[in-house]
Design a protein that fits this description.
The N and C termini lie far apart (84 Å). A hairpin with a 5-residue loop joins strand 1 and strand 2 (96-98). By secondary structure, this protein is of the alpha+beta class. It contains six helices and seven strands, in the order H-H-E-E-H-E-E-E-H-H-E-H-E. It is flat. Helix 1 crosses helix 2. The longest helix is centred in the first third of the chain and has 57 residues, at 31-87.
């Protein structure tokens, strides 16, 4: 029995589609096909990344950039006026003469100001934002050890659960900073003393403590970049074997 023209057309179309799929499969597994696939993926990732960066810039960074630009221009103009007033000395003929000693003193004073004021302000702003985003109050953690690694600087090994593996151990820093001082003055009415905070934790015994902490706890930040979460308070610390179940 001969096939009708419609059936012949269906068989021809199926044959063409099979050949097309076979060609596409061979092309995808070829070096050129794999390279095209990878390049396409990189291209789409680049487009999406640029689009996401543009969105962050437009909605978040641009308003701050405008304010920072205005502040930078005002600061620069004010510093120029201060520079002209300090480093130039008018001689007997009414001519402004550049004074090297005054310029050196002003540069040294500027460096000290930038280090102690601007750097401290930037660090305070960063720590404040970090506390607002990552701060945890009245969190129960299980401290393993505490060790003084420098003057007024301690490191605490702790777990979020009663038992944890070595790769799950968290490392907290107890150290002095402007934000820690302000937090302690506001919340506890006194200055922040790292030795006193660390003294509530047993050096070698597992303790159950109620803590206030802030900072990222990603292992990449801790082990690779040496950026540790901070411990602000440790209270109600009891040995694990005598502590009540929290």
């Amino acid at each position: 029995m001969t096939d009708s023209p419609i059936e012949k057309l269906h068989r021809i179309r199926e044959h063409v589609e099979r050949r097309g799929r076979a060609r596409d499969k061979d092309a995808a597994h070829s070096p050129a096909g794999r390279a095209e696939h990878h390049l396409t993926g990189v291209w789409w990732f680049t487009l999406q990344f640029v689009d996401a960066c543009h969105w962050v810039w437009y909605w978040f960074l641009r308003p701050f950039a405008r304010a920072f630009r205005w502040l930078a221009i005002k600061t620069w103009r004010g510093y120029r006026r201060l520079w002209d007033a300090v480093v130039y000395k008018r001689d007997a003929y009414g001519v402004d003469v550049f004074h090297k000693l005054r310029a050196g003193i002003l540069l040294a004073a500027t460096a000290v100001f930038v280090y102690f004021v601007v750097f401290s302000a930037a660090t305070l702003a960063w720590d404040s934002a970090l506390y607002l985003v990552t701060g945890r109050s009245d969190e129960i953690i299980y401290t393993r050890t505490v060790q003084e690694i420098d003057e007024d600087k301690h490191i605490v090994r702790a777990c979020e659960e009663r038992t944890c593996e070595e790769e799950e151990v968290l490392y907290f820093r107890i150290e002095d900073s402007l934000f820690n001082e302000l937090w302690s003055l506001w919340n506890r009415g006194g200055f922040f003393w790292p030795d006193i905070v660390a003294g509530t934790i047993a050096p070698t015994e597992t303790m159950v403590c109620r803590t206030t902490t802030y900072g990222f706890r990603f292992k990449m930040f801790i082990h690779r970049m040496q950026i540790y979460p901070k411990l602000l308070r440790a209270s109600e610390c009891e040995p694990l074997n005598t502590a009540r179940q929290p």
